[in-house]
Amino acid sequence: MTNVAVLGARGRMGKTVCQAVTDADDLQLVAELDAGDEVTRETVAGADAVVDFTVPDATKGNVLAALAAGCHVVVGTTGWTDAGLAEVEAAAGAAGRNVIIAPNFALSSVLAMHFAALAAPYFESAEVIELHHPKKLDAPSGTAAATAKKIAAARAASGSAAMPDATAADPDGTRGGLIDGVRVHALRVSGLTAHEEILLGNPGELLTIRTDSFDRQSFMPGVLLAVRKVGGLPGLTVGLDHVMDLPGR
Amino acid sequence: MTNVAVLGARGRMGKTVCQAVTDADDLQLVAELDAGDEVTRETVAGADAVVDFTVPDATKGNVLAALAAGCHVVVGTTGWTDAGLAEVEAAAGAAGRNVIIAPNFALSSVLAMHFAALAAPYFESAEVIELHHPKKLDAPSGTAAATAKKIAAARAASGSAAMPDATAADPDGTRGGLIDGVRVHALRVSGLTAHEEILLGNPGELLTIRTDSFDRQSFMPGVLLAVRKVGGLPGLTVGLDHVMDLPGR
Amino acid sequence: MTNVAVLGARGRMGKTVCQAVTDADDLQLVAELDAGDEVTRETVAGADAVVDFTVPDATKGNVLAALAAGCHVVVGTTGWTDAGLAEVEAAAGAAGRNVIIAPNFALSSVLAMHFAALAAPYFESAEVIELHHPKKLDAPSGTAAATAKKIAAARAASGSAAMPDATAADPDGTRGGLIDGVRVHALRVSGLTAHEEILLGNPGELLTIRTDSFDRQSFMPGVLLAVRKVGGLPGLTVGLDHVMDLPGR
Amino acid sequence: MTNVAVLGARGRMGKTVCQAVTDADDLQLVAELDAGDEVTRETVAGADAVVDFTVPDATKGNVLAALAAGCHVVVGTTGWTDAGLAEVEAAAGAAGRNVIIAPNFALSSVLAMHFAALAAPYFESAEVIELHHPKKLDAPSGTAAATAKKIAAARAASGSAAMPDATAADPDGTRGGLIDGVRVHALRVSGLTAHEEILLGNPGELLTIRTDSFDRQSFMPGVLLAVRKVGGLPGLTVGLDHVMDLPGR
Which residues of chain D does C180 touch, with a Cβ-Cβ cutoff of 8 Å? Predict the structure, then answer.
């Protein structure tokens, strides 16, 4: 049984994490802290691992305090700088405890990106479609931009030729945006949540990888995986793909 | 048994039409004409219906000649002007024969556009994706543009509110092109032929209509339908949707 | 402004309906009744329309009481017999008030079924896939079975030939179930809610119609449409397709 | 420049291979042999690599003869026994030449199967849909059965719990076939060629991997990859995944 404390426990993600930990047979929720609560050996109440879903301003302080309290830490809060990561890595080493920081805990999304990069060198064409609810403020999504960059890097590393595209006229700008040479298309449609579709094509064949994230629940398998693995991953690990031990090229 | 003559019989579409007529139990191929062949009562060899897949410069002359030869006519050649259509309508009336002109003989495509227009007033959001082979010169496809216009017209007629879209930043132009207020996205991927996907969304629900056209064969059911129906549709009929007797609103 | 009373207001669907009515600019929620509350002119509090999402045992009594109280009625409760429908129709006539009973308020689902029936005569092949969460007890879904039956009826009415299928060996039963001659496939996958995909094919072309229902929210546009239209649809109307005034064949 | 001889050069696959070799800048077609032609050092005309797309009865003899003639060999013919493979492995060792035998040269299909196996341990649910033209005699496809087996093996190796499925009633057999505990669904629809869709689901998220193979052309990138790599893969290699150097777990 692993004891878990949750920071940001009254936020939307934090509440979902508390519930997921409570529902897991091998985990025990021992503390729920939120803004204003100090993170100390006492308040984390014997936690083996602390999960932080707070805010960019607070997260680094939380992680350092949790390490000082003798805990491993799993972080879903974004906004980390290189300097902040280096500080955490040093503190983790000094404390003999481990930290996992991941910008994206959706397993399907992490896998899709990984597979797209593995497959890209074998195909002439690659384009990315991302589809979200219409309340989203920015386009494209960070995930779609990251996917395009991974595809571009994999193609560059394998010496892929430029993608075929005879488009001579596109007066309305329907061909989407170019990110590192990969076309990205963003849709905003009521009813959708967060979805991504990657198309890879050769003459006569197509490979499509699609992910659908329907709600916050979709991040829980990734969070729990990190909680279960953090004790065995020395130092600082950034990115769920490294936690998942996905075979690289 | 309906006797059929094909004009443009040595072109790619013409050859496919000749084969489809030959394969149909209720149709008989009686003449195959191409560039340089005159269209007369003799050369059409007793055809009840003439099918024209030639070139814009030749098609109007062919239709008038075929009417004069006592035939109904089915036309797949594009590039018609309003004046040309009026001339054909008058000639059809005088000859007591019928003409069907259709820019698109793909049943699935015609149905998809029709359904999109019927459904559009019931949804907050609508976007169109078209996907083609990378040798296509223009974007978006004519079909996608026509679909967007039909959706826009149906929404306007029913007094639909503007689609929700909170996008505040899209530096790369990933949100696609706006055609009559409807977002259209064009993909060019090796392996694809001609495909369209229409997404219609409300909070909590999505309706998606997709068509795939894999080869010229996909136009044959529409061509044969027109050949079989042209005798019963007096005067000039423009558009396969009218041949299909699809219920309007 | 239309005044609305909700019966079954503390149930899951009832709560969602109360919220949707409250959120609509042209509707006003005037009464929330649940089990144990009597339905009278006083308790419905001046409602023009009553919405019933209760249980099969209670619904007929509720409808008759609401008609007696001078209200139009919209019913989402299932389990109606022919005798019950006849009794309601007579009572509606006597009261000079109208009733809409619909087994399915998802607009996208009603449209998909309608479109599938319109399109079916034009295609050689048709198959239905339904995809649901793994807690669903029965397979296939009622919607998928109803879709298959509508497709079969439309094919029969138009004299369609049998679908091509050369399958000679299927030892594992992978070809799915036959409902009125139409293959239906049921998937149960974590993460899904309620989805249906209808494939219609000819040589060289495919038409796919897909609906995704992500949550109860998806039924609200259909419920509100019925509330807004019930005053103008004399007597008893069964099925949202008739409320939507979809053009038949 | 690699010299290539093709065996079965007048068959449908053989013709396509000859054309693909001719079109490749770094390959030269030096011999086209078919039934009745002997495979000798003279007839292969200086080929570095021989490609065999013949028939099960002939393929082993062809491979042994090609090895004796000093060539590497790429084989797409199916029907190999364990004894036959052992014999080829020994002959390759003795000749100091290499052999690649692959039952499936579609890159997208090989990648999809590989990715499905990598992803399967991270998801509660997995089901496979395969979609083919209606002239196919058997169901499910060999690829779908192989995919289901790979998913089952990956789940077993990682100690996955049984998939959730509350289905209590399925009178029509719509839940498809069970292959090693994985549900497989087979569709036969006009217009389709060969397609596969793998769904992997967790609460709140879905990962879908789809492949479309539209024609024989889709096998050429895999064949050419094998031709280019066979010189560097000592001995016998079975399966394109090993040629592609996909990272295993």
Answer: none
| B184 pLDDT more than 80 | yes
Residue D247 is labelled as binding a ligand: no
Residues 6+ apart with CB under 8 A from B136: A166, A167, B188
* Six token digits for residue B179: 């055609």
Question: Which overall architecture, per CATH, does domain A107-163+172-214 show?
Answer: 2-Layer Sandwich (3.30)
- Minimal CA separation from B194 to chain D, in Å: 13
Residue ranges matching CATH 3.40.50.720 in chain A = 2-101+217-243
Fold of D2-101+217-243: Rossmann fold (3.40.50)
Active site amino acids of A: 132, 136
Residues in chain B with CB shorter than 8 Å from the CB of D193 are 214
Distance CA A31, CA D166 (A): 35
Q: CB D203 to CB C184 under 8 A? A: no
Band (B13; pLDDT cuts 50, 70, 90):
very high
- One-letter amino acid for residue A34 of the chain: D
**A205, D216: Cβ pair inside 8 Å?**
no
Alpha helix segments (H runs only) across D11-141 = 12-23, 56-68, 82-95, 107-119
Pick the CATH number of D107-214 from 3.40.190.10, 3.30.360.10, 3.10.129.10, 3.90.25.10: 3.30.360.10
Chain A residues with beta carbon closer than 8 angstroms to that of C191: 212, 214, 218
Q: Complex ipTM, two decimals? A: 0.89
- Nearest by CB to residue B201, choosing from A144, A163, A191, is A191
Start-end ranges of CATH 3.30.360.10 in chain D? Answer: 107-214
- State both tokens at B34: 């191409």
Q: Do D208 and A209 touch (CB under 8 A)?
A: yes
CA distance linking residue C18 with residue C8, whole number of Å: 10
Chain A: list its partners (3+ Cβ pairs within 8 Å).
B, C, D
CA dist D139 and D189 (Å) reads 13
- DSSP-assigned letter for residue B120: G
C-alpha closest to that of A32 among A51, A5, A4, A63: A5
Active site residues of D: 132, 136
Specify which residues A7 forms β-bridges with: A33, A52
D236-247: per-residue pLDDT in tens? Answer: 999 999 999 787
Residue of A nearest to D197 (CA): A208
Which residues of C fall below an 8 Å CB-CB distance to A? Answer: 191, 193, 212, 214, 218
User: Do B210 and C207 meet the contact criterion of CB atoms below 8 Å apart?
Assistant: yes
